[in-house]
Structure formats: structure tokens, C-alpha cells
Amino acid sequence: MQPLDTLNRPLHDLRISVTDRCNFRCTYCMPKEVFGRDYQFLPHEDLLSFEEIARAARLFVALGVSKVRLTGGEPLMRRELEILVEMLAEIPGVDDLAITTNGSFPLRRIQTLKEAGLKRMSVSLDALDDPTFKRMNDVDFPVQQVLDWVEASAEAGLSPVKINMVVKRGVNEHAILPMAHFFREKGHILRLIEYMDVGSSNGWRLDDVVSAREIRDRIHAELPIEPLEANYRGEVANRYRYVDGSGELGIIASVSQPFCGDCSRARISADGKLYTCLFAIAGTSLRDPMRSGASDEELIELLAAVWQKREDRYSELRSAQTRELPKVEMSYIGG
């Protein structure tokens, strides 16, 4: 059984937020002004347990999911995450198991994640110079430790390592070319992401967006690139390769070139709500029926019904009115 939504989009990808906590305070995601010392994060009992997450993943696989990504918050803030990775890796049908992290943890965690069954690593890094990066992560964390994490991930076989860079005008667009040069030479895939209006706390303005066209033109002028075919329907990044054959990069243009028409992603928030769009304003609880004794068959019917009614295309419809809606925060729903 593979349900299609109202726009005939299949369900292939599942992103699971395992915690709403993070040790960074990136200004475009969890600004200190909102997520300060007194901010009330979810209590542990409200989070899905590892067993509940694994059960949900199995049900999603029954509906066609083959790619699972762990997000947050910062997923490695969740204690003993390797146990969950092992549980997910053992599910028949999970062909691609990945994680998105800020790379700020002890390097020994990379090997334990690999041994548990993790297949791929994506690392968030918004600049190569410490002043810019520290200003963006807002906790004085240095670039070099993240670079060490990237290299150790590649050495462990979690490759290709993807580097996610959110580009915000007036903040780090000067870092685009240094990042492109550096990761091209290292053989990793840089993915440049348009600054998005996820949630309601990051003060998003359209003027702050450096468009995909501008990003591409900046890189192409110095490092000629040409487009590549997508790896699969619904891939979020527009892929490019360097003309000299030295690798590839991706540009994620959800603001200027929406890709809603091919979106095949569902998201589970840290407290077990199913969301069918990154910009959603409401979700459907999976935790409550699970904890009330719902059978697998009943839960599959629920998931299929939610997906079949799905009509989300926020980025295609983005307007002053939609931007005012009380959307779910990035740290709660995952990227």
C-alpha cells in the first residue's frame, strides 16, 4: 500500500525529530531572544520513546518510506541515540538512514553511530571563518571542531558527507565562495540553502534571502558549474557538478524556486506529531493513539488517511498572509 496525496505525491522520506533541544543558538533557527535560559523545552515523558519511534518508522515503511533521517533540535543531544539508530537500521525496507548534526560532539560518537548502522552524515556549517560562524551559532563554537567532525565522518565511511550552509544576506554570503573552494578540494558535497521562513521566531524577511540564482552565479563566475539530473524524484537540492570534474554541490531553493510539486517527505516532531510540510501550522498526534493501545493496522490507516488528504504547497503559495501564520518552529519539527 503506497498512498498518494491530493497532488499525486508518494510518500518516500521520513524525517524524525528526536529532541527539541540544541546546544547551539543559531540566529535563523533558535535565537537566544526566544530560546533563552528560561525557555521551557519538552519534558522527557512527552518525547516519543525509541521503541515508539521505531514502531512508527516500521509503519511508514509499510506505506512506502525507504529513506529515514534523524533531526532535531540537535539529535545527538538525545541520550544513547545509537540505540535508536540500531533499531532503525534493522527495519527491512530502510535503505537509507542518515542524520543531520552540528558536529559539535566528541569524535568517538561517529564510530559508534557507524557501528549502529548509520549510513550517511549531514553536517550544518554556515561559514569557514570563526567570527562569522560564532556570530551565527551564538555560543562561541569554533569552526575547526566541526571540520574535524566532517573529516572523521568521511574516514568512517559515512560518505559522501553533505555540508549544509544556510545563506543569509548581510551575514554570511561572503562565505559562499570560500566554502565552495574548500569542500570541492576536500571532496565533500556542499549544499547551500536559501534562508527560509520556518517557524515564527527568526525574524525572517524576504530581503534577507540570497536567491539560488545569485548563489549559483557567484560560484559559476569563479568555479564553473553545470546542472546534474536529480538522483530521484523529490530530491530537495538542485544538483550541479564542477565543469573540471572535481565534484558536485547542491542548492536548495525553497523560497525562489519551490519544489512542493515533488515533495515526498513526512515529518515526526519530537513529541510524536505527524506533519506533512516543513511550514505546517498543525500536526496529527501519533503518540496519543500509540499510548492508548492502537493496533498497527489502525495506525497505518491513520497515517494513510493523513497523507491522502495532504495538499500542502506552502512555498508555492508563500505570501505576506501565509508568512503571518503561526508555523511550527524548526527546532521542534526538524529541518
Overview of this protein structure:
It is a single chain. The protein has 335 residues and is an alpha/beta fold. It has a single domain (13-333), classed as Alpha-Beta Barrel (TIM Barrel). Helices cover 31% and strands 16% of the residues. It contains 12 helices and 12 strands. The chain has helices at 50-62, 81-89, 108-116, 130-137, 143-155, 176-186, 212-222, 287-291, 296-308, 314-317, 320-323, 330-333, and strands at residues 13-17, 67-71, 96-101, 120-124, 162-167, 189-194, 225-227, 238-242, 248-252, 265-268, 273-275, 284-285. Strands 7-8-9-6-5-4-3-2-1-10-11-12 form a 12-stranded mixed β-sheet. The chain is globular. Mean pLDDT is 91; it is low at 319-323.
